[in-house]
Amino acid sequence: MTDLSTTIAFAAGHGGGADWRGAMAETLQRLGSIPVGSNLGIVYASDSLVDDLEAVIATLRQETGIDHWVGCVAMGVMGMSLPAAAATVAAGDADEYFAVPALSVMAMRLPPESFRMIPAQPDSDTYFSAEVDDWLAASQPAIGLVHADPHHPQLAELIGDLAERAGYLVGGLSSAQGPMPVIADQVEVGVASGVLFGKGLEVFTSLSQGCKPIGPVRAVTRAHQNLLIELDGAGALEALQADLGSTAIEDLKAVANSLHVALPVPGSDKADYTVRNLTGIDLAQGIVGIAATPDPGDKVMFCVRDLAAARDDLKRMLGELAGRLSGPPKAGIYVSCLARGPNLFQHREELEMIRAALGDFPLTGFYANGEIAHNRIYGYTGVLTLFA
Question: Partners of 230 in the beta sheet?
Fold first, then answer.
């Protein structure tokens, strides 16, 4: 007879309230009876609960018996609970929360040898204990769920180093109007931390873009720090206006808030790119400022944040994941950009698209200040990770 206390199992709960206690009560109600022997938890808390985060984790430990917790604060959190767990909650089994005290929690029962905590990483020199190094050597390929404070001084370098050391990464940057702590057994600011998953777990992940290119890939031929001066030997603004199909300043102003620049990922076989903001346009000199520091020879393309394109690409990603699964997922983690959610989609739309494609399953997630996939930080994307 199978010992059910040792099989892989998941439960998820989410809820909002007038304060952290109200949010906790609704979350625990949806969470229901967690799997006996659960040994890892994920918690995402709305940024209004940042001062209560220690109390939140202490209460979760007491109520669930789970010692190990990872997560972060965010300006928006989301979750899906199985219908049976949510039957007594009027709000339903899938929701997202903004501008209210809210929690999204997942309880996980995993083989003890299938995961290891990533301790706080304060700089770009990845630190693991000798025990974790030995575990990694025996557990490749591994996948790391990483949460990071966007104020980390060497974040891009750290993410690259973590991926090189540990394997494929998923996760995101905390988001808040104040401090942006992350959690890996304890609450810390200015660091990155998380958990590594190794042998014994079947994990699938994919990324969906929220912006679409409006012109060709161009080579940077002249730049200064974050300023694009020339692309393919012509003025950067001239190239942007060519992509827009208009030289009228009024047309440029009309789409300015949705314009971005995409940086193609070298060597990608999926036309992958990271999106960065435009920081300004100098109409007199024809210069375009971006939130990156390209070098001559780098490739860029202009793009726009687009709802129809985001819907189509999310549908594509979900179809791709569904095709890789042999059955419904056991659980999932979804990290979506703050610029998506209510700033792009309708309320709960992303969650409903996930449910329509993959069915009902426990899911937790948050709206990030940047999304982590593989070895880099993205923007305007959705990263879905599934346990099969």
Answer: 222, 235
